[in-house]
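Async update (no meeting this week)

Hi team, since we skipped the sync, here's where things stand on the single-chain job. The sequence we agreed to prioritize is pasted below, unchanged from the tracker. I ran it this morning and attached the output directly underneath so nobody has to dig for it. Comments welcome in thread, and please keep replies under the output.
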Amino acid sequence: MRPEEAAQRWLEAFEAALASRDATRIGALFEEDCHWRDILAFTWDFSSARGRANVAAGLAARQAETKAGGFHLPEGRKPPREIKRVGRECVEAIFAFKTDIGRCDGIVRLFPDASGEPRAWHVSTVLEELIGHEETVGDRRPTGAAFSRNFGGDNWLDARRKAVAYEDREPTVLVIGGAQAGLSIAARLNQLGVDTLVVESTKRIGDSWRNRYHSLALHNSIHLNHLPYLDFPPTFPKYIPKDMLGNWFEFYADALQINCWTDTEFVAGEWDENTKTWTARLKRGDGSERVVRPRHLVFANGVSSYPFVPDIPGLSDFKGEIIHSEGFQSGADWGGKRAFIIGTGSSANDIALDLHSFGVDTTIIQRGSTTVVSIDPSARLNEAVWDEGPPLEDCDLIVASTTPDLMIEGYKLATQRMLELDKPMIDGLKGIGFKFDIGEDETGHQMKYFRRGGGYNLDAGSSELMIKGEIGLMHYEHIERFVAEGALMKDGSIVPADLIVLATGYLPQKELVRRALGDAIADRIGPVWGLDETGELSNMFRRTPQEGLWFMAGALPHCRINSKYLALQIKAMEIGILGPLEDR
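Output:
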């Protein structure tokens, strides 16, 4: 059976079974060990189910309210095809359908049963837009007539200045942070007609990247890093340097007409249960304070919060310079000196390369085992979906559709392939005593990122220099304490240093919430980022236990993909079809 025929046949049977709301009939279309991923279409949440009985029961129970129908293979999308996913050959098809309130897409992956009939191994259902509240893009773009030859009245620039001043209204949404997360969600909300203000603590949009260490460039390639609505130019390099990225963010904010206040710090916020609004205190660069009262508050200032400085015996006795990696710029002023870097993650290794390039005698101090992956070819394995050729929206749907269980299985397979590709490097690191691991349940660096936001190095060349002895390696447990001159080793010797860089990571996002919103809210919401009991990212991109509080974070592709779903939820609440989490 051809892929298109198999997909069409299954969709017709699925629509009929779903309309019957008969779990047995629905279940007959699935394999025994099957998976269903829903993003807002049936559940108004990010949710997954596994096993024929669970999947069928969930679909049957939700159909009465959802009223899903009109399942079809849409034109202009990647057609059904045979492909390998998570180690299995299958037919993969993108489909579209409608619910009572929205237009949706999905993925189905099929295998033939003993009689040759297609059966689903994996299905996703994903809300893409709200009927009657579609994004103002493409054919629905504004005409611009309001500013066309409006003699004697405001032109476009006048309107933009008034819009960004917020002198005559309150923003519906206040977004804290103006990098990829904040810009992505603000752009999405703008196109849904939701009045949004972004506040950014640095002086210019993009400074959060410009102010990072001198040699930084993105570790993943350009084709998966586009922001919503506006792709990077085809002239941009494969791995974008930090300053180029920062400049692009600044241009993007202007081009997408995002209301931004730079040099503005979010000081504190309080939720008013009676008015269902936040009282948000903002400190402007000129020292003045402004209070705004949005209905929604989006923290979009990163996976982490404040720099983490562990309790290191004797560190305060060290007479040289101590700097956290957050504040490191360049090794240019340290040529001929000696530096320790405490930590073995990507930032630590990039900083080591930078210091080494300026002639600094550089030693990395390893505190715990680390996953090390070459940027190319190994880390590129996780970009494979974007390399297959489908349009970006199809790739994003494929990625978003993956259940936590399938994601783990996929990363296990990818990690084994990485071990093969990186074997010479890994053997060399182990040979010099480097403590290497492949992550919890052998899922490699990507699941470390989702679980804890770090613990790995996307290697840009420091490993080879360590193996050659050009960058030193020291184990933290061999150090008795730090002293004025450097590190006092347990054998009594002193290893001197002039500079210590603490590449020791950051406190969790929850601590930023605690300082800004108070203990009660921080304790109520629980962890931010990391995996919850269902395998989803905790409190990310969806309703939280605190009404009106949202979180947006991650690498550029995560922000592009998930900003759509967060924006849809806020819009749904604004038009009255979605309530707070406790109403679910």
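Quick observations from my side:
The radius of gyration is 26 Å.
The chain has three domains: 3-130, 162-305+508-583, 309-504.
Reply here if anything looks off.
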